[in-house]
Amino acid sequence: MNRNRITRKKVVVAVEDLQMVYRVGKVEVPALRGVDFTVQEGEFVAVMGPSGCGKSTLLHLVGGLLRPTAGRVLIDGIDISSVSDVKRTEVRRLKMGFVFQSYNLLSTLTAKDNIELAKQIQGPGHHEEGSALEILQLLGLKEKMGHTPSELSGGEQQRVAIARAVISRPSILLADEPTGSLDSDNSRMVLDMLQGLNEMYGQTIVIITHDAEAALTADRTIEMRDGRILNRGKNVLYAMEEKHS
Ligand SMILES: Nc1ncnc2c1ncn2[C@@H]1O[C@H](COP(=O)(O)OP(=O)(O)OP(=O)(O)O)[C@@H](O)[C@H]1O
Ligand SMILES: [Mg+2]
Question: Domains of the chain, with CATH numbers?
Answer without folding.
Answer: 3-244 (3.40.50.300)
